[in-house]
Amino acid sequence: xxxxxxxxxxxxxxxxxxxxxxxxxxxxxxxxxxxxxxxxxxxxxxxxxxxxxxxxxxxxxxxxxxxxxxxxxxxxxxxxxxxxxxxxxxxxxxxxxxxxxxxxxxxxxxxxxxxxxxxxxxxxxxxxxxxxxxxxxxxxxxxxxxxxxxxxxxxxxxxxxxxxxxxxxxxxxxxxxxxxxxxxxxxxxxxxxxxxxxxxxxxxxxxxxxxxxxxxxxxxxxxxxxxxxxxxxxxxxxxxxxxxxxxxxxxxxxxxxxxxxxxxxxxxxxxxxxxxxxxxxxxxxxxxxxxxxxxxxxxxxxxxxxxxxxxxxxxxxxxxxxx
Length: 323
Fold this sequence. Notes:
The structure is a single chain. By secondary structure, this protein is an alpha/beta fold. It is built from nine helices and 14 strands. A seven-stranded parallel β-sheet has the order 5-6-4-3-1-2-14, sandwiched between helices. Helix 1 (about 15-25) links the parallel strand 1 and strand 2 (about 30-35). The N and C termini lie close together (about 10 Å).
């Protein structure tokens, strides 16, 4: 192992997000990807020892387990690694940096210098990506009554949902979180800049991965009565020069399917409007396992370890090793 290559450990590598991150990191030649034997993956002592040997640890754990892992790391003092948490445990914690590099011009720098970064959720990536630029531009009031509808592939729902959809006769489509208490709502509210809690209606389709997040507007209810073109241009100005976020022209199409960006770290944003009816709908399309999870984690890891963000994956074998 080259001494100048940072070591990375994925705590919880056997889950869907952990496997996705590992697959992507195996194609990053600038790091050494380390792993514990399966028998030691739940051993706190072995995990803590591994943490002490690594520059960065990615947490792919349930919320409670992620908090426990952070406590393990913090007892290491100066030997503690940088932490990148893929759970929801720390996303609205002010002591953690929010890992959406496109959130603001200075956000990549904050991520690069932070020792604790929370990876965004898949739904919030689409919702915040659409709303924050418009709220900052004054086109959408922070207290506007926002409704967010979204559909995701079933891979983001955990083992029980994956098993339900992959067995014969699995559900074709499901609305869920109808108690209006989805755990992503505080994250959306905070980072979009909302002052009024949005209504969030998530759903799951009978496809493995991919995501659409949509937000409707009555244009005459917005300040200055903007056109759809005004909303589109505000998004384009906000993301000008972004490598991973693109504002896409609809080009007359009135359909959008959710799987086109699978296996990428892209976020595509659309504005459809009917000026005669003075209505608009904004849509974000992304891979819930890419820019919505594993792809975003690798983007953040590159910033945190000062790796060249332009470097392309050049090996399918990577530099993985066992402890």
